[in-house]
Amino acid sequence: MVEKITGMLALIGVLSLFCQWLGWKLRLPAILPLLVCGLLLGPVFGILNPDAIFGDLLFPIISLGVAVILFEGALTLNFKEIKDHGRMVTHLVSIGMLITWGCISTATYYLLDFSWEVALLFGALVVVTGPTVIVPMLRSIRPKSQLASILRWEGIVIDPIGALLAVLVFEYITVSGNQTSHVLYALGSMLTMGLGLGAAAGYLVGQVIRHNLLPHYLRNTAVLTLMLGIFVGSNLLQEESGLLTVTVMGIWLANMRGVDIAEILEFKETLTVLLISALFILLAARLDSNAMMDLGWGGVGVLAVTMLIARPLSIWASGIGTSLSKADKWFLCWIAPRGIVAAAVSSLFAIKLEASNVQGADAIVPLVFLIIIGTVVIQSLTAGRWAKHLGVTSGAAQGLLIFGASKFSRELAKILRAKDVKVLLADSNWDNIRLARMDNIPVYFGNPASEHAETYMDLTGIGRVLIMSPYKQLNPLVTFYFQDVLGSKKVFGLNNAEQGSARHQLSESYKQRLCLFGDAVSYAKIASQMAKGAQLKVTNLTENFTFEHFRKRYGETALPLVYLTKEGKVVIVSGNETQFPNGIELISLLPVEALEEAKIQQMIAEQEAIAAQTKAAEEATLAKAKAEEKAEVERQRLDQQAQMKAKQSQSEHEPQDAIDRSDETLAKG
């Protein structure tokens, strides 16, 4: 028996990894391969029977796993970020969530004859969407940046809020079923314990982190251990209050000033991936196929209400007062896949309610899985066509993710942003990130190839990645990660390879991508040039100022980086280009030598201009003198002609004058 349990645990771990890899490879939410795997192992072939194998350990395993998942989700709920992402996100996780809850609960009550308590619990369980299913879907659909941001942040924020709502409803049901105590008193005690102990635990753990009371290598482990201890202790002090306690604890830590939870969150996410994968296979294997079939048309009706009534109502109500168009809202109406959090929490609550003999508890899990399967499969297959029909796709992504926020990267990002090109800087160096923020450049602090980045880093509109960091160990990891995400021809890196280093031999496929700005261009070379005073410059290449003129002015040391076409296309220079077309804006790095060469060329041009002006002035003076001389000659010629005409006229009139004088003399005589 022990060997069988060990073998099953190993099998679940291997299959969890395989399903995660398959989802990543096929660009699908990992929940789909995990679901299929669990169904095949459990109901279909009967290989895995979690209840028989784990027995009494099954409930503690699921319980602790759900606690970790809820705590990790709560760590992401920063109230400031909700405000920063616009009115639509705020409305969706408040007004929209309540509308969704009401619509689904009502449909469940009337279509499946659930009690109001169980219907309200089910409605609370399926209000969450979750980034684990949203992000892969957005990558394949590629909607407009604003819509992608709304959906992504809705999934991030609503996870802990929806889970908190489900916990509160569950605790109300648990208390209501206790006929020996006053309902309001018991519920008040539970809420007091959960809220009070959660806030106190969050504050104390935050103080430990803030004042570095633990060594760095123990911090992540200590927070996880303390969280699990507080979860168990809360349940011992007040039954069923543990989930509320750890959720409040995570929210408190996320909003506590001066507490850096980035590393803790990354560690929890890594752990959560394993827990989610293993839990989902276990939960899917526990499904009773007959129970799902027994839901009949009532279950299909609840799915239809969830997709066709609840979601559109929440979107249109939440969209009041926003700038979203009708097409934007209709697109958002169709994207709301349910995720693993709903499955995990529902399974835990179902086990507890079944133990308390609550009527209808055994139908919660099949109905939740029906909603998950329906929303994920239907929306994954149709959302892309729906987005194209509405005209809300973003088209070819021209934005750039730059890994490494050095001075050079920041200067390049500022120029590109001024040209309306989306740029995102990522770096694990806080000083670089701080300086980039001061320049109003969008940033991501941390490893862009991490699980945290996959959820929180907005890649909408990003089509290529430039690896320009000094981190030689991390650069290949980021390169290979984004080659898988965007394609091998979309990632470029600086050639930081050390010649002749046996310890850092690189694969040929990786070396082929180290051509950014040229085969001989490295981070050290660019950093050295910037330290010496190199500058980035935008040059318009035209018929009157071609690339040959550019080379003549700045010399061979000028380094072309990127150019923008009239159509708005961004072209990355790989160093093999010898000519550039006219009609583009060329962004280049001008080292000190190039700047000096430009000054020399400018001085030569100025001297040539002065010489040309002098020559032109001399030629103008000479031409003027020649013109004046010619005019004088012409004037003299005209005067001579006039004199000759006057003499000729006088000679013609002299005989007649003599005759007239003779006649006058005779008349007098």
Automatic annotation (TrEMBL):
Compartments it resides in: Cell membrane
Principal localisation: membrane
UniProt topology in membrane: Multi-pass membrane protein
A GO molecular function held by the record: potassium:proton antiporter activity
UniProt keyword tRNA processing present: no
Cellular component GO terms, alphabetical: plasma membrane
Basic and acidic residues composition-biased segments: 625-638, 650-669
InterPro entries: Cation/H_exchanger_TM, Na+/solute_symporter_sf, NAD(P)-bd_dom_sf
Keyword Ion transport recorded: yes
GO terms under biological process: intracellular potassium ion homeostasis
UniProt protein name: Sodium:proton antiporter CPA1 family
Lineage: Bacteria, Pseudomonadati, Pseudomonadota, Gammaproteobacteria, Alteromonadales
